[in-house]
Design goal:
binds benzoic acid, Catechol_dOase_N, globular, 6 helices, 14 strands, Protocatechuate 3,4-Dioxygenase, subunit A, alpha/beta, metal-binding, binds fe (iii) ion, 6-stranded mixed sheet, single chain
């Protein structure tokens, strides 16, 4: 893994790229399917080049920028911001349970196991932010609690940094694998996340700025929920009334995934969310 010394886009991009490169994926795509997709992609490029009369200077800048994206290790970041939401949408159409959302580049498998009622590992400086309790149940499509459910959760700190992608954070900060009880119930204490700005000091950020767009995602929790015999889901939860909820740079919000936490007698914000998992496809 690349040594990361400071929390920069290039450092976190390189860490995300190294993590992704660690596995070799295969897709079983037939030559016919590959040819059909590539032909349409190239035709689409051709059409937009003709429509906008793209110049040679613009073409050279594009080539240079694509090289920068690779050298900056930002392919996972760039693709997850602008493309993953379409892939997620197409691939989750057949499911009836809880809606999914993009995984993004910062998932790390193998976070330490925590009991059904737990607090995520965090630093003293994280503790100054309001506690948030996320609780609920993992069920089948008829609302019956599932035994053996696990909820992997990860989120950024209030400066927008994810542990293992910024060098100053402990390895599993704000990450955990929560083992729900025999009825699928869980209650996780963490801190309320803040809106998150995707790294702006690399080529992805330069492109966003050059286009006059913004780099913000609404505050969110990432989750991967599994249970034996059930289709795993990767999703995110957002917060009612939060900034950027209707203008997410990654186009990954869905109305079904918005929490509305209420303050309890102890002054904690508490949100309830049940995850319904589809049966595994045959
Ligand atoms: C995220 O943390 O949610 C994220 C970051 C970069 C690209 C896409 C998603
Ligand atoms: Fe995120």
């Amino acid at each position: 893994m690349t040594t990361i010394e400071s929390p920069t886009a290039v450092a976190s991009g390189n860490a995300a790229t190294d993590k992704f490169k660690g596995e070799r994926f295969t897709a079983g795509t037939s030559p016919e399917r590959l040819s059909a997709i590539a032909t349409e992609a190239l035709a689409g490029f051709g059409a937009l080049i003709r429509k906008h009369a793209v110049t040679y200077d613009e073409y050279r800048v594009l080539k240079q920028w694509l090289i920068d994206v690779g050298e900056g290790g930002e392919w996972p970041l760039l693709l997850d911001v602008f493309v993953e939401h379409e892939i997620e949408d197409v691939n989750s159409r057949r499911f009836r349970g809880t809606k999914g959302s993009i995984e993004g580049p910062y998932y790390v498998p193998g976070a330490p196991e925590l009991p059904a009622q737990c607090a995520l590992p965090m630093r003293d400086e994280d503790r100054v932010h309001p506690p948030l309790v996320l609780r609920g149940q993992v069920t089948d499509l008829d609302g019956r609690g599932l035994d053996g459910a696990r909820i992997e959760i990860w989120h950024a700190d209030d400066e927008g940094y994810y542990s293992q992608f910024a060098p100053h954070l402990p390895q599993w900060n704000l990450r955990g694998t929560v083992v729900a009880d025999a009825e699928g119930r869980y209650a996780i204490t963490t801190i309320e996340p803040a809106p998150y700005q995707i790294p702006t000091d690399g080529p992805t950020g330069q492109f966003i700025e050059a286009a006059g767009w913004h780099p913000w995602r609404p505050a969110h929790l990432h989750l991967r929920v599994t249970a034996p015999g059930r289709q795993p889901i990767v999703t995110q939860l957002y917060f009612a009334g939060g900034d950027w909820l209707d203008d997410d740079v990654a186009t990954a919000t869905k109305p079904e995934l918005v929490l509305d936490p209420q303050v309890d007698d102890a002054g904690r914000k508490v949100a309830t969310y049940d995850f319904a998992l589809d049966p595994l496809a045959d």
